[in-house]
Amino acid sequence: MNGKPIPSPRTVAARILARWLLTGDFPDRLIPENTPQRNLVQEMVYGAVRWRRTLEWLLTGMVSREPDPETKAYLLIGLYQLFRMDNVPAHAALNETVEASKADLDPARVRFVNGVLRNALRRREAMLSDLSRTALGIRLSHPDLLIERWSRQYGDAATAALCEWNNRRPEVFVRLRGTDTPAHAALREQLSPHPIATDFLRVPAGTAVSELPGFETGTFYVQDPATQLAVALLAPEPGMRVLDACAAPGGKAFACADRMQDKGVIIAADLHEDRLRRLRENAARMNLSCLQVVQADAAAPAGAAIRAHAPFDRILLDVPCSNTGVLNRRPDARWRFAPEKLETLTRLQAAMLDAATALLADDGSLVYSTCSLEAEENQQLVERWLAANPAFRMDEQRTSLPPDSGMDGAFAARIKRS
Question: Which of 246, 256, 321, 371 is the catalytic position?
Answer without folding.
Answer: 371
